[in-house]
Amino acid sequence: MPTTSNITSPLLIIGPVRSGSTWLSEALLQHGQVQSVIENRLLEAMYHELFHSFWAPNLEMTVPEPERRQRAVAAVRAAFCALFRARHRSGR
Amino acid sequence: MKLLSRGRPWAFVFELFPEARFVHVTRSPTTAVPSMMEFVGRDYGVWQRVETAESEFVTAHREALGVRDLGKPYLCVRQEDIARDPRRVWEAVCAFGGFAAEPIEGLHREVNAARSMRGRVRQGRPPLSWAALSPEVVAVSQDLGYLPRAPERDGVKAVVNAALASQLEDAERSRAVLARTCDELRAQLDRLHGTIGGILEPLRSLRVRGDRLTLDEVRRVLEPVAETVDAYLGLVRERDRRERVPAADGDPPRLEFRTTLPCQRRTGTGEVQLERVELLDAVRAAVRAVGLGDRVAVEATLRAFVPVDNVSVSFAVRDAAGVSLLGTTTFDERVPLPALEPGTVLTVRFAFEHRLRPGVYSLAVAVTRVTRRDYADARLFDQADGCVTFHALASPERPVHYLVHEPVAIEWSRA
């Protein structure tokens, strides 16, 4: 199971839709050393909730800015790790 | 991790995965844009618009190229290379990711193909013309290497040449129509030349006589100038023009506003006037080129300026020499039209199957009042000659012998 610390080399597929990303993602899924996840706009949703939503200012009052950002990064990274398929001990 | 599309909070992404490597997937817009329109447009209608797909293409690639320009670990993978040699792409991705290139099942398998392309992905989607894409798409495509950059424009030149060749083909079909328009414009210019002379001459006279003129004298000089300028502007704008309608016995002459039709000649009393004449195709769209056997209609819209009954509308198709070839009248076809009150607008359509040989033809339309079969009491309200010019296109499969092709029944029997 990947954790926030054992992802050795994240590979991010970027670009527009309909350009071969699904082929690449499915090929990567079959690789023994790779785990893959479709991001599917989760990142934006979490980023928005943490930094730009209605309740984000409340979070600012309880935690100073640098720490708040660090916590947010850790939380989002952990969320993505939880989404990887639990097939391998480590993931990329 | 797939992080496709656009509008990503990139600064946060870099914080989230500082050690990330980025694989940028690209595809020529000539196939990517229609693929987006078909595949995504199936669920989201707005994607069926080429502008939406183009916007997605441009913005997502600009963001991805921004990642590259920041110096992040970056690999560009082309969909065309995946289709041509997937194993080679896979090896390149593995090398970039830093893991062994394990053999993978189904690398040649079609993945996520659009409905129209299933089973044919390797052949490639029929591409859009570069000329059909926006300048922004072309610019991004240059950054992606799908088109040569400015200093080496040979590829672009070829694309532009192809687009121009297609346009020239269309232009050739309209050549005769353009030639006729040029002749008309030349005639207009000749008239304008005379008009401008009429303006300049009084002004020259004014300058010569200088400040010795009284106000009345100035007015007398300028009045014809103002009239001439009005006439000139009316001619240039091709808007309504005033025309003196011949007076009936005992009536004072009057002026009527007659809508200018783009015709060669206009005659008639003006009591009922043609406002618009169009040649329509089977779906009632205006056309200027028709094929043999096409259903077409001549549509004439007219307006009455006086109460009038027994109105008859007619049309004639004429060849380039002005010879009337075919036509009819509502009177002869025994289709009575309603009596018209002043201000009434009436539209009449003559539908028929086009059977003329290839060439250029024009339409003449007329409105009359007639009650007698010998036309002895006909009163011509308005006649517009050459108000529509159209092309009869050649059909390679069905030549027209002589002037008109009328369907002929053919039988044979063995003795």
Describe the fold and architecture.
The complex is a heterodimer of chains A (92) and B (415). Chain A is mainly alpha-helical and 92 residues long. Chain A has four helices and one strand, in the order E-H-H-H-H. Chain A has helices at residues 21-30, 42-51, 56-62, 65-83, and one strand spanning 11-14. The relative contact order of chain A is 0.25. Chain B has 415 residues and is of the alpha+beta class. In chain B, the strands form four sheets. In chain B, strands 5, 7, 9, 10, 12 and 13 form a six-stranded mixed beta sheet that branches. In chain B, strands 6-8-11 form a three-stranded antiparallel beta sheet, with no helix packed on it. Chain B has a two-stranded parallel sheet with strand order 1-2. Chain B is elongated. The relative contact order of chain B is 0.08. Chains A and B meet through strand 1, helix 1, helix 2 and helix 4 of A and helix 1, strand 1, helix 2, helix 3 and helix 5 of B.
Record keyword descriptors for this entry.
heterodimer, A: mainly alpha, 4 helices, disordered C terminus, B: 415 residues, alpha+beta, 6-stranded mixed sheet, 3-stranded antiparallel sheet, 9 helices, 35% helix, 23% strand
